[in-house]
Amino acid sequence: MGPLRTVVLVILGISSLTFIALFGRLPVFSYILHENHPLVLIFFLGLLAIGEYFFLPTAWPWMSSIHKFWVPGVVILPFVLIYKCVVTKSFITSQNHDEEMKRYPYDRVLFHPGQRCRTCHFLKPARSKHCNICRACVSRHDHHCVWLMNCIGANNYVYFLSLLLSLSVLLTYGTLLGYSLLSQTLQEIVPSEYQAAMKGWKMYFNIWAVVITADAKIGTVTLLMLMTAPLAAAFLVYHTYLVWAGMTTNESAKWSDWKCDVEDKLVFKAKRSQIPGAPRYMDLGDQPWPVDSDQILVLDDEPPADGYILSTDSNFIKYHSRPGAPVDGWERTDSMGDIVNIYDLGFWNNLKDSVGLPVRRKW
User: Fold this and answer.
1) 76 in the same domain as 45
2) Do 261 and 316 fall within a single domain?
3) Does 117 reside within a domain?
4) 108 in any annotated domain
5) pLDDT digit string, tens, across residues 161-213
6) Does 85 qualify as catalytic in the annotation?
7) Which entry of 131, 134, 145, 151 is annotated as an active-site residue?
8) Which GO terms describe its molecular function (predicted)?
9) Residue 173: which of 236, 210, 221, 211 has the closest Cα?
10) Domain identity same for 202 and 266
């Protein structure tokens, strides 16, 4: 069990470093996570390259022709996509600012007109966010990825989604391939009477421990892929959900705040067509946004009363006076289902918009 213990400790060490890189709060990792430091990217690339270096030369002679056809593409594609994710920027600059202002309308729920970036000193386009690590405003900001030393936004989200898919395929395919090769080793080195005794858990693990230590390179990498495949798949599922819901990682946090306000009974809704002076959404010119909404929301502990003035750049109310007479047309919002997300165009249009393809216009 000595060699197997070493294998398990190595895998647990790598898994711990991966977990800390994602969620750690230690000072050294805090520094790395809050600066565009290459250590995490180097660790990521090294993990892929070293695993493939140990696995492929040993496994290649035992692969069938169909595996030899597919494996090179499955192995190389993640490196290509990592490169594209790293070098493709979604920064908003003075040169493309006018174009970015026309990319999305303000929904006046999550994003409001008239707000300026205090660092970049220009109006913030809808769905954008300033990244303190990249030191730039990012178009359709999703999140800053420490693994890629870059923000994921409008221009590289397609590569990021593709990377998650390719990593999920690589790790799942590699795990199944490794299991197939280790099964061959099991048939060769384990007598049939011991194979028949593998019905019990203790005997099962003991025999597989012998197999893994007998074929340490394939066994170690297979175990590592088995442990990390669910993580890559979970990220892929989460971002698939975000595409389905028509939002980004950044926006999901904003919607969580609204959910708390709805649960606290602080959100009131009315139809813009019934409220005098209610602001209209920004017109995008020749290509109007496919989804419009007649909703207008305000945050307050009481429904709007006589004397209120709607702010022109947010969902807040400015009162000249509040005599206490509620205004008709306002109803308390009891469910997030009552709030329209104008960026949700349906799954296929959401997917097309996420990867930079034109979406179908409805009006």
Assistant:
1) yes
2) yes
3) no
4) no
5) 999 999 999 999 999 999 999 888 888 887 776 666 666 677 777 777 778 88
6) no
7) 145
8) protein-cysteine S-palmitoyltransferase activity
9) 221
10) no
Chain segment 80-101, per-residue pLDDT in tens: 999 999 999 999 999 999 999 9
Of the pLDDT bands very low, low, confident and very high (cuts 50, 70, 90), residue 270 is confident
Is 192 found in the same domain as 75?
yes
Domain span including residue 48: 2-89+156-245
- Res. 4: pLDDT tops 80: no
Domain boundary among 222, 245, 268: 245
Residue 21: burial class (beta carbons within 10 Å; 0-12, 13-18, 19+):
middle
pLDDT, residue 8, reads 60
11 and 79 part of one domain = yes
pTM score over 0.85: yes
- Examine the domain organization and report whether 278 and 254 are in the same domain: yes
